[in-house]
Write a structure and sequence with these properties.
Helices cover 29% and strands 32% of the residues. By secondary structure, the chain is α+β, with helices and mostly antiparallel strands. It folds into 2 domains: 125 residues, Aminopeptidase (3-Layer(aba) Sandwich); 156 residues, Aminopeptidase, CATH 3.40.630. It has a 12-stranded mixed β-sheet with strand order 1-2-3-4-5-12-6-11-10-9-8-7, sandwiched between helices.
């Protein structure tokens, strides 16, 4: 008998997260980071599957602010390999599907990772189709020569920590650029206060690790890091965004070089990022800067039960 229990206290949340971190180590997070992310959702369900009294897997369902106008709920299933082929993943999926359906969300989506072929097969077997794919790359900083930032005429490269009064101007870049990210065409940019709290001020976000390209008092581009405490030697690129009218002037390159220089100076050993396959510009820039390919991931989507 598999029993699904919702996480109603800190012990339950910690148990759920430990199962997730074991299953998807490349996305490991601390409890504070996980909670901050969940609190940014419109609604969520965190749950753990038990088999004969033993915790064997966890599931998380979320309804995101940027999918407010859709019928989609996002799900994460985490069943460590030692607990698979016992019906655990299916039970978690059914539970999350019922939760989503009650909220008018008959369509489910989630990430599957190339490092986990079982997860890919699990999704395909249940009628989920790949809707987009991220290429993932990494840069080893340990032997890298400290880069110099290439100036762009008329552009100052600074940080949000040094220019805290530019938050609204950063948000204007986000509003223009979020819909330009392949796969995000139909997503809704959160209101300013929500964006500031959940996109820019979480436990893994730091103003000194958010780099700005400024023309006068206007932010024309920015690039920020996500710094997961659970992986202290790794800095993850979160977003590199440049306003449309300022593209193809070397601004994205200057921002990336500033990030690389800062991360190396701070003692980070590795940078990682994921970019949708259609995002050719940033993928080409990463390749030019020495990033190399690592196993990717795909977003899959389907309805339970299948149509």
């Amino acid at each position: 008998m598999i029993e699904i229990r919702p996480c109603t206290d800190e012990a339950g949340s910690e148990l759920s997260l430990s199962l997730f971190n074991e299953t998807v180590p490349e996305r490991s997070a601390t409890l504070a980071e996980s909670r901050a992310w969940q609190e940014g959702m419109l609604d969520f369900l965190d749950c753990v599957a038990f088999l004969d009294g033993e915790a064997v897997g966890s599931g998380l369902g979320t309804i995101a602010p940027w999918q407010r106008e859709t019928e989609i709920a996002h799900v994460m299933l985490a069943v460590p390999p030692r607990n698979r082929r016992r019906g655990v993943g299916g039970a978690l999926l059914e539970n999350l599907a019922a939760w989503a359906a009650e909220r008018g969300r008959p369509t489910l989506e989630g990430w599957v990772y190339d490092t986990d072929p079982d997860g890919i097969e699990f999704a395909r077997h249940r009628g989920f189709d790949e809707v987009l794919r991220d290429a993932r790359v990494a840069l080893d900083l340990r032997e890298l020569t400290q880069p110099s930032v290439e100036p762009t005429p008329g552009i100052e490269i600074t940080t949000w920590a040094d220019r805290p009064g530019l938050s609204r101007s950063i948000y204007e870049v986000a509003c223009e650029c979020y819909p330009d990210v392949p796969g995000g065409e139909n997503e809704t940019t959160p209101p300013y206060e929500d964006w500031l709290q959940h996109d820019m001020s979480g436990p893994a976000d730091r103003p000194e690790a958010t780099f700005l390209a400024v023309a006068g008092d206007e932010v024309v581009g920015y690039a920020k890091f996500h710094l997961p405490a659970a992986r202290p030697t790794i800095a993850a690129h979160d977003l590199t965004a440049v306003k449309r009218a300022w593209r193809r002037r070397g601004i994205a390159r200057a921002l990336k070089l500033a990030q690389i220089a800062w991360a190396k100076e701070q003692g980070y050993e590795r940078l990682e990022t994921a970019n949708e396959l259609r995002n050719e510009g940033i993928r080409r820039l990463n390749e030019e800067l020495g990033y190399t390919e690592i196993p990717g991931r795909a977003l899959v989507r389907g309805r339970i039960p299948p149509e």
